[in-house]
Amino acid sequence: MGSLFRSEEMTLCQLFLQSEAAYACVSELGELGLVQFRDLNPDVNAFQRKFVNEVRRCDEMERKLRYLEKEIRRDGIPMLEIPGECPEAPQPREMIDLEATFEKLENELREVNQNAEALKRNYLELTELKHILRKTQVFFDEHEGGVNTTESMTRALISDDPNKHMGHVQLGYRDKQESLEFLPWLVVYKVNFSVAG
């Protein structure tokens, strides 16, 4: 009785293939799934082997595919999955087209991600400037209405509750010099808003 961990009966064969037909023949044998290849040059360094450049290209294409798959899954886009089936190995001329397509898709996706980050940054900056303009508008509108303390003016510009609607606060100065002295508060407010945001 045979062991579960022992393979079926196998025959050792030796094939001599031309370089031009080697890729197609090995691909067909690999599709069958009945062949185990032996390394006849175990002492040769991996970087000195004949097809190391092709293996590197395949590794690079696999990395690009993993990146594309990660981005697709992150955005929740449904993908077509064929369970239990493995596509056939492409021909060498098809590999060149696939490599160019993967390179183009990766570059486009990276550019889209960079543009999305830039748009988000611009949106946050514009939102910050919108809040500053609203606060300064309240400040200048209430400045024309009357006189009140510096504490009321500070509350008009810097509120603890950003969602709270600011009521009308009567602001005023004895002369224009005091209004210029209050301008540094605007700068401090903008810096605090940037740090808090």
UniProtKB/TrEMBL annotation:
This is V-type proton ATPase subunit a. Essential component of the vacuolar proton pump (V-ATPase), a multimeric enzyme that catalyzes the translocation of protons across the membranes. Required for assembly and activity of the V-ATPase. It is a multi-pass membrane protein. GO terms for cellular component: plasma membrane; proton-transporting V-type ATPase, V0 domain; vacuolar proton-transporting V-type ATPase complex. GO terms for molecular function: ATPase binding; proton-transporting ATPase activity, rotational mechanism. Belongs to the V-ATPase 116 kDa subunit family. It comes from the Eukaryota. Keywords: Coiled coil, Hydrogen ion transport, Ion transport, Membrane, Transmembrane, Transmembrane helix, Transport. InterPro entries: V-ATPase_116kDa_su. Pfam families: V_ATPase_I. It is found in: Membrane. It comes from Parnassius apollo. GO terms for biological process: vacuolar acidification. Residues 95-129 form a coiled coil.
